[in-house]
Amino acid sequence: MSGDCDDLGRLAHDLARRRTLALERRRRVVDGACVPHVRVDGRPLLAFASNDYLGLAAHPRVALAASEAALRYGVGAGASHLISGHSALHEALERRLAQWTGLPRALTFSAGYMANAAVLSVLAQRHGEIFADRLNHASLNDAARLARARLRRYAHGDLAQLQRLLAGSRAAYKIVATDAVFSMDGDIAPLPELLSLCERYDAWLYVDDAHGFGVLGEGKGALAHFRLASPRIVYMATLGKAAGVAGAFVAGVEEVIETLLQQAHAYVYTTAQPPLLAAALLAALDVMEQEPQRRAMLWRLVGFLRAQARPRRGTFLASATPIQPLLLGDAATALDVAEQLWQRGLWVPAIRPPTVPQGTARLRISLSAAHSEADVLALCEALNEVA
Questions:
Q1: Rounded to two decimals, what is the model's pTM?
Q2: CA-to-CA distance for 66 and 95, rounded, in angstroms?
Q3: What is the distance of C-alpha 270 from the center of its chain?
Q4: Could you give the CA distance from residue 94 to residue 239 in angstroms, rounded to a whole number?
Q5: Residues 6+ apart with CB under 8 A from 337
Q6: Fewer Cβ neighbours under 10 Å: the N or C end of the chain?
Q7: Is the dihedral of CA 6, 8, 13, 17 positive or negative?
Q8: Structural domains in the chain, sorted by start
Q9: How far apart are CA 193 and CA 207, in angstroms?
């Protein structure tokens, strides 16, 4: 019993230390749909916090498709895809996603975290070596560790260091894993150069396009943005950001996708997502295709923010994506600026270590096609005044 008390004391100490260092995270309670003007913790706010880049999370067509599918298919799949949970809607969605990305085949997952774990564990295994950008999302890093492969991390965007690591590798299987759009910096990975290195050193290129899908390449994603095609590329994108719903998918050549279906524990041993979500995603893809003005509005707002914001504190990182980070330095400063904005009715999350490196705490401003220029102007005026 004394051991249990000691363990509780350690946890309490760690939590207190996290609060002291301004690193404690806090959940906000949102009452309503994911829209810019929302009620949070009981008060109305203008939010720049979500990844709903195209404003589809509350789109009437998407919501209607989900509700109609719920009446026909129910609210649960009942089993894994390989038992009895793979519905006609799941099948239609996978075919549509393959067509959308221009890749031979797609496989859906319940979350991007699971998709990353599936791909790296199957392709690398314990005899492989994974080469990862140091600013990759935590899910990619965790997936590499779960794969039990050797993990080699190269400095952010450092192609020369990556080449040296690849040249020195004697691994049976090599995978270069990278975010396409880095979620906390908003910059885009040099995918053409990465593919060239993979071709030279006989490696897979695994692209996590969570924040590029639906936004870059006229909505088709980072591969379309760079006009890239290769059987070496394994592509993953999430469906709860620009697509507005939930889940993820992996796309690539037939042999890769069938291998994942047969062997990936994160696919084989989990219940399929509700079919109603597949119906919602099919509707979301229709909207993405039929309403290109949403992407045009998004890019217009990015330019408007960059032109109008002259913050008294912090510096904007060089990002041409809807992710606009305002670098502030230490965690306490980031919290202070976020709180001042909160008091003015603006919700902009403060991002602190370990999500970002020490000394690079920031506000992560996230723009959506559902924002108006007036919304963004209100944010700019507040940033220009907060001290």
A1: 0.93
A2: 19
A3: 21
A4: 12
A5: 313, 314, 326, 328, 350, 363, 386
A6: N
A7: positive
A8: 27-56+292-385 (3.90.1150.10), 60-290 (3.40.640.10)
A9: 13
